[in-house]
Design goal:
22 helices
Length: 507
Amino acid sequence: MRGELLYEGKDWDFGTIQRIHDAVADIAHKELGLDTFANQIEIITAEQMLDAYASTGMPLFYKHWSFGKRFAQHEGIYRMGLQGLAYEIVINADPCISYIMEENSATMQTLVIAHAAFGHNHFFKHNYQFRQWTDPEGILDYLSFAKAYIANCEERYGHAEVERLLDAAHALMPQGIDRYPRKRPLNLHMEEKREQDRKEERERVYDDLWRTVPGRARGAKQLAGDKRRALLGLPQENILYFLEKAAPRLKPWQREGLRIVRLIAQYFYPQQQTKVMNEGCATYCHYRLLGRLHETGRIDDGSFLEFLTSHTNATRQPFYDSPSYSGINPYALGFDMMRDIERIVREPTEEDRYWFPEIAGTGDEMEVLRHVWANYRDDSFIAQFLSPRLIRNWRLFHVVDDREQPNLEVSAIHNERGYRDLRRSLSAQYDVGGYAPDIQIVDVDLAGNRKLVLHHRVRDGKMLELTNAAMVLGHLANLWGYEVLLQEIDAGTEQVLKEHMVRPEQG
């Protein structure tokens, strides 16, 4: 049954947005079986969208000079017409907040509502990474608390002092993440309430820790080795957490500032691991939803063509020799893998039945996709569901570039062994543990000069870039208050390859 058009032409008003949302919701929930948080749609200007870009997609975030720098960069490129803006920004919250630009046409508003308010929304609510690491009900209140807390610190301690702390904390953000699930779920609602209790607890733990520092050589021996490291909770990969709990010279407000940055970094951690899946889910959903609106006469041919043009641009994958090539487009790979799973479920070949016996020919692609969206992250998703047909369509090969060898080696071709190798090698590129440096605090000289010792376990010869390493270690030394030694150690041989020693700035 064909319905009335939701809109005509490009113009829209708030009533149009409501009609679009309700029509999309009806198809999303009843036909695709999506289950979403309640939606809150905010309409903002291009300048506000640029501002949201700059503050890492969190318009309610505290202020920092780096956000202004990014704003200026994005604005300059945008005003020159060299780059468009995202049509939306969506916040993983309950209710789920979608920011859409007032400059969008009615069709683009339909697209971004389908993409963000239903595709991303469903993924946020159900994917196990987001369920483990985020608190949708508490994030908005916590952002408000964090913004007010930082502003209050600027008034009390000075803008320069707060900026110095945030500079250091932001530099250490990638090393401010727990990579294994906690015993208790994150509860951001309690963070503001517990801030005073936490202050008192921090001071007690801090006093107990440094009171044990022996003053004589005999005492130093008693705290040697394993006992000392156990007292400090070492080794520790979450550097911001360790500093928050144990840095000798930090003041209580600085410890709380580190905690704010650390919790925000943790909140974004699932997005690092699910970029292909999250965008693939949202893109697949908007493709199905807009297609259904067209089939049922809710949008006309002109609107559908406008949608297809935007969709095609978003899912375009340039070849490696194209000037516009910048790696694999997550929208393209994610969308193609979702469509491929749909094909395998509906119309499998004998090859599909061999590779995917659990899902081939089962008939209900949405049941399979909802299961996939809930239970995988990018690396495991690619390892499990990248099909031989898609490998061929994408013309994928595994090329080994060994700097010790004069020639490149094509190590995987399009046969059974090659398909499995390609799956493994591509999957590894999306494993956060595979590309993030493995850096841990391993020891502190409690009895002597309080030097902090870190190890970077080097795999495949990937050493730290010297300039960036020096900058980040400088920030770490300033927060710790004493010398910092980073040793780069070969993960296979345990040989020390390089050492970096940094002292804190005086002042």
